[in-house]
Design goal:
This protein is an alpha/beta fold. It has 3 domains: about 110 residues, Translation factors (Elongation Factor Tu (Ef-tu), domain 3, Beta Barrel); about 110 residues, Nucleotide-binding domain of ferredoxin-NADP reductase (FNR) module (Rossmann fold); about 90 residues, Beta-grasp domain (Ubiquitin-like (UB roll), Roll), CATH 3.10.20. It has a 6-stranded antiparallel sheet. It has a 5-stranded parallel sheet with strand order 11-10-9-12-13, sandwiched between helices. Strand 14 and strand 15 form a beta hairpin. The two termini are about 30 Å apart. The protein binds FE2/S2 (inorganic) cluster.
């Protein structure tokens, strides 16, 4: 029999593996394919605070997926996420849409920050595509709390708008909504050029939109340090360059081709590594790193852990240019 250790914090019980068990206390429909869930502690205890733009890793239908929290993160008694139904996805979103009901329990990992607002920014230009509005909504809640200057561009398919009224209210009406790609592209070029010095740009949405916005900002002279993006999922990552992994314990070297994850390459070579999401969000595949410089592309390790450079998530991360990663396997 195995017994999981746990810790009581502020009346709430957090398992030793960092998992919180919450209960669904609200369900709402936003757009035709978006389901918004409100989660709370079963005992009513306060939940861990989080930085605006953080995400929650949710166990859904045997997988772990990351979803942006939409609140401002200060003293939360509830967590709110909005889930886009992905018919041909891995099944997590379908489970959250079709199986989960009011009053059900849901296991989540404590919030992680990957897309925080810069407090010293003179202005926050917030750009969202589709379900990418969710971390932007979190930024807007914080912006209102702190009286920050914001401007929002939101582009979405005609039947997939989410939180538009809330975003309009929080931005003080300083929002432009687009359902036609050409109109958004045209307006983007103008907006990028007319920002006051010290503005920071945040973009979240499909990979193609993020790439276009970031490239347009660069072409308009924005320094990279003032452009921030949030990407979810393996599909949003580029295939990367080929590299080598040195297995120091077994004295072997494994080649990782472009477009193949380190996890896939190691498994193909007979190395078994526990994993769940294969998207850099659940933390299950974490392995020690004993040499080489990794490009960390996961949403699991904190900035401090990434700087420490002693662990890597092989499902998404790769070696820095020309480097060989060493792992004690
Ligand atoms: S399998 Fe989930 S982070 Fe790698």
């Amino acid at each position: 029999m195995s017994v999981a250790a746990s810790t009581a914090v502020g009346g709430r019980t957090i398992a030793a593996d960092g998992v919180l068990t919450l209960v669904v206390c609200g369900i709402a429909k936003s757009g035709s394919n978006i389901r918004s869930l409100t989660l709370t502690d079963p005992s009513g205890a306060p939940l861990p605070a989080y930085i605006p733009g953080s995400h929650l890793v949710v166990e859904a239908g045997g997988r772990r997926n990351a979803y942006s929290l939409t609140g401002d993160g200060t003293n939360p008694s509830e967590y709110e996420i909005s889930v886009l139904r992905v018919p041909d996805g891995s099944g997590g979103s379908r489970w959250l849409h079709d199986e989960l009901d009011f009053g059900d329990e849901l296991r989540v990992l404590a919030p992680r920050s990957a897309f925080p607002p810069v407090a010293r920014a003179a202005k926050h230009l917030l750009i969202a595509g589709g379900i990418g509005i969710t971390p932007i909504l979190s930024h807007l809640h914080a912006a209102r709390r702190w009286g920050r200057n914001v401007q929002v561009l939101y582009t979405h398919r005609p039947d997939d708008a989410a939180h538009v009224d809330e975003v309009a209210a929080l931005s003080g009406g300083n929002i432009e909504v687009f359902t036609a790609r050409a109109a958004f592209m045209e307006r983007l070029q103008v907006v990028l050029r007319e920002q006051p010095i010290g503005t920071h740009l945040y973009v979240c949405g499909p990979a193609a939109l993020i790439d276009h916005v970031c490239e347009s900002a660069q072409a308009s002279g924005w320094p990279a340090s003032r452009v921030h993006s949030e990407r979810f999922g393996i599909d949003a990552l580029d295939p990367g360059d080929p590299f080598l992994v040195r297995l120091t314990e077994s004295d072997r070297t494994v080649a990782v081709p472009s477009g193949v994850s380190m996890l896939d390459a190691l498994e193909a070579d007979g190395v078994s590594i526990p994993n769940l999401c294969r998207q850099g969000v659940c933390g299950e595949c974490r392995i020690p790193l004993s040499g080489g410089t990794a490009i960390h592309r996961d949403l699991y390790l904190s900035d401090t852990e990434k700087t420490a450079a002693d662990a890597v998530m092989p499902c998404v991360s790769r070696a820095a240019d020309g480097d060989i990663l060493e792992v004690p396997l």
